[in-house]
Write a sequence for this structure.
């Protein structure tokens, strides 16, 4: 058991966010697990009640300013910016409105929420902000992921810049990036499918579409971790360590692969 912190997380209705929220509550933290929909929040509240956990859930759409302001009701020790969507498809022909929407959810909304959380943290001179980025925000390892990968590169770059700024005035406010590899939460399948909503006969890549789909299915079948445990463990470390690192990633073999690709000049 640890000294309980107030931990505020977005996109906790499913996947890594939900598993992280539950795991942190089980470790004795007070978790505010916000979700995309009311139904997800209701489910999470029931689960927490059944397991007697200090976890409260409600809907917070990160793209809605009024929803984001709900964070001001709490003296948040840790904010985890986890909510995200994935948009895939050729950058040569994707409707830019799709890319813009992807950035709105994955980047701009997280920055706006972070600014609100920082108000209290600056005043109290302590806190930490976690950005759930991705190993896809370090290296481009496959085609047709441009929109999503660009949002995650931007999240990681923003976090690094913010860390350098904050370090100049506060030693006890930590900015941290979490980089998951591939996990079987359904996120990747949803993201891969988005491109087939519009990449059709008129696409430059029409002849190769079947092949692209097969390669992507195979890639994720081979790389996706069935359990989220390894990344949840890293997120817990980032929340609890006295002196947290800037970057945490998992699973180890995918982070190593990305490091090697970068050394090789990727
Ligand atoms: N799974 C992977 O392989 C992987 C790899 C690298 C990074 N990540 C990152 O890990 C994080 C969690 O992803 P996951 O794999 O756990 O997938 P997930 O289960 O789909 O989690 C994403 C969550 O964000 C929510 N969300 C989407 N738009 C939102 C909005 N406007 N406001 C509030 N919540 C919103 C989703 O709700 P709905 O389902 O209702 O839309 C969902 O609950 C994301 O940042 C993702 O980019 C995942």
């Amino acid at each position: 058991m640890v000294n309980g912190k107030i931990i505020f997380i977005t996109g906790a209705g499913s996947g890594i966010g939900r598993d992280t929220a539950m795991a942190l509550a089980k470790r004795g933290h007070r978790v505010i697990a916000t979700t995309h929909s009311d139904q997800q929040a209701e489910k999470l509240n029931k689960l927490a009640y059944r397991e007697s956990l200090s976890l409260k859930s409600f809907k917070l759409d990160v793209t809605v300013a009024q929803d984001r302001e709900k964070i001001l009701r709490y003296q948040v020790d840790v904010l985890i910016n986890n909510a995200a969507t994935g948009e895939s498809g050729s950058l040569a022909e994707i409707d830019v409105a799709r890319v813009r929407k992807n950035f709105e959810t994955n980047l701009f909304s997280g920055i706006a929420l972070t600014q609100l959380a920082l108000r209290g943290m600056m005043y109290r001179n302590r806190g930490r902000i976690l950005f759930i980025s991705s190993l896809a925000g370090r290296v481009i390892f496959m085609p047709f992921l441009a929109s999503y990968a660009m949002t995650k590169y931007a999240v990681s770059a923003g976090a690094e810049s913010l860390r350098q700024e904050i370090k100049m005035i506060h030693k006890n406010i930590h900015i941290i990036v979490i980089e998951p590899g591939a996990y079987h939460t359904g996120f990747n399948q949803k993201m891969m499918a988005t491109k087939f909503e519009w990449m059709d006969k008129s696409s430059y890549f029409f002849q190769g579409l079947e092949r692209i789909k097969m390669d992507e299915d195979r890639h994720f079948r081979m790389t996706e971790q069935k359990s989220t445990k390894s990344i949840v463990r890293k997120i817990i470390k980032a929340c609890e360590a006295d002196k947290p690192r800037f970057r945490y990633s998992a699973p180890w073999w995918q982070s190593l692969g990305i490091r090697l690709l970068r050394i090789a000049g990727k």
Notes: The mean pLDDT is 97. The beta strands are 6-9, 30-33, 55-56, 78-81, 127-132, 173-180, 247-250. DSSP finds nine helices and seven strands in the chain.
